[in-house]
Model the fold of this input.
Amino acid sequence: MQHGKSHLELFSPRSRFYKGTFGRLFSLLEPWTPPGVPEHQLEAHLQALANETMVEAPGISPTTIAENDTLRKELDEAFDAIVPAGYTYFGQFVDHDLTLDITALSDAEVDPDRLTNFRSPRFDLDCLYGRGPGDQPYLYEHKDPVGFTGRMLIGDIAGSGFRDLQRNAEGRAIIADKRNDENAIVAQLQLAFTLAHNKLVDRALASGQADNATDAFKAAQRVLRWLYQWIVWNDFVPRFTQSAVHAAALSKSDASVAGRSVWRLGLEDIFSWRNQPFMPVEFSVAAYRFGHSLVRNSYQTNVSSAAGFQEFVPIFDIGADDDLRGFRPLEQRRVVQWDWFLEMSSSSAPFPQRARKIDTKLSNALAFLPESLADPTSIENVLAARNLLRGVRMKLPSGPDVARHLGIEPLVLEDQEPHALWFYVLKEAEVQEAGLRLGELGSLLVCAVFAGLLKGDPRSWINQNPLWTPEDEPLLEPLDNQDPGDWTLASLIRLSGLPISNDSFTN
Done:
């Protein structure tokens, strides 16, 4: 869900067994480009297509929608799904953990070696831990005379009692991946993981499970990574994919020798690699960008905001100072009350707020991005247009071609609808699943890649300890009112100690 400004004009290597960090799943399929559109008209064509057909309420600013109760409720009724809104931004956090390309390429650049993933294609929280305390000590706490404490540094919101990411004098977060500060909600997920790590370090030292800060850090890091992987596969992915596909992609079976339990991949015909996984561009540039369709125009943040229960804050709006964009310190008005974003025991109607459906209509906020303030009409400010353009630049095949390649009867698209893989995944979800989850092709691509990355990580829990569950972990104490096996994103938030309910703000 990166909102970076660069469009990549390049070729990713076409061997399925490419040994680098990016590669292709369908290397022999022809790239798709809009038929009859010359190169010099491509951006204008795709921007017009996005603005006219891929926006919930074309031409209306997110602030106008937030302040118009009737219009806002009409859009909510038409486009809201059932998944709590917090998973939208957890999906963004996961994306930032898996992939980052910062290479600026000219239109003429075609060298595949210039495409570098600065994140490892593993669920290893390198967007949190960076390169570790030895190489990036400014992310970690040190105290005289003991030195490194095993904990990560955090900040606070002056005079409020609430925490924030640590920030420099310009208000920018000092974290391993700057993108986890690009909006207030994903910033607080980064904060949740930071606080959860610190809680686990304290428990390791207090319980005697670690003799020193370094050992406590390593223990906390392993437990948090495994809990994160558990939540990704058992909580996040099933909410957005077809259950049969999810079950087939990764399954635990008892081997015939000595009663062993092993995890097996079921979709290796889609995602294969040699030595270690790579990041497929069909996933990162198309299929996984279904998350953009989940974003709402505005959110209610917490009960203590100026208008309390009735205040709706735009996620993005060009020229607005009171939206939820990041790269600046939090203030109490933008602090997330998590039972308004996730299903918790303290949640009550109309909460938690819901993510939008997976469909071809993106919220107006994503057509009013503050990427190019000097030119509000720039393609930089229209995320749907940028996604379509990126797919063309990356030489991705069409959605119907990929469906046929995998033996799926493709959808019949309207004449004006683009055959772009990203658009096709959204359209398929809209047609086959009423926007409540991904359709056949989208589920296959997302589950195959997630399962393949998890299985391909030699340090994941399914490889290190195939029988592991969070209940078995001494550092993960049971949470109040939590059923056995029910370790979800809400559990991580509760572990972190971030504010959950009205009481967190009224006390």
Summary: Residues 213-240 form the longest helix (28 residues). Residues 1-13, 15-19, 102-114 have pLDDT under 50 and may be disordered.
